[in-house]
């Protein structure tokens, strides 16, 4: 069924305006964004297929633009660009929240923020959250890419960036494309190396978070710092 064939008070746009966005299902909200379906398949069906394919809204937020091409009707750039724009808005909104409050007052938000940025990447990325004295986010920077080892992550560069941001503390983060978030011995050793290097300039390492699609591991929560 096309949206125009629904009763006026059941059409997602009218329903949202009359009853608020919370009254809409995930499928209806996504259908509003997609606007049109394909021949023989209404936009509500298309929205449901997208959600089923990628594991709901949470899965969609961790989906790369290329993956969306798997859905008939999303092969062109326009709709895929709109969905990626929504993802970027979610990232920026969360970044603003972390910049306005103590990061570790909302550890779940930190993990979600890092998952949105790193979890979908197909190669390993090492990033650093630079925090002020109140543990509010100053900036996030992706500093290293590729296979992460002691030789590919340079403590001197992280120290330099921390001083540049006048950071009082940092959160280290990287992704595991394999999907396994448990730290390796190399991850633990690297964490201690960076912790020692940053301590020389009076910058604390508050956590090292490892993320994958749908999961995250905090070394601080597990007592590994």
Automatic annotation (TrEMBL):
Which terms under GO biological process does the entry name? proteolysis
Q: Which residues form the MPN domain?
A: 103-225
InterPro entries membership: MPN, RadC_JAB, RuvA_2-like, UPF0758, UPF0758_CS, UPF0758_N
- The lineage's top-level taxon is Bacteria
Gene3D superfamilies, per this entry? Answer: Cytidine Deaminase, domain 2
The answer to whether UniProt assigns keyword Ubl conjugation to this entry is no
Provide a Gene Ontology MF annotation, just one.
metallopeptidase activity
Write the signal peptide boundaries. none
Coiled coil where? none
Query: Pfam families from the entry?
Result: RadC, UPF0758_N
- Is Hydrolase tagged as a keyword? yes
Question: Which keywords describe this protein according to UniProt?
Answer: Hydrolase, Metal-binding, Metalloprotease, Protease, Zinc
Name the family: Belongs to the UPF0758 family.
Name the UniProt record assigns to this protein: DNA repair protein RadC
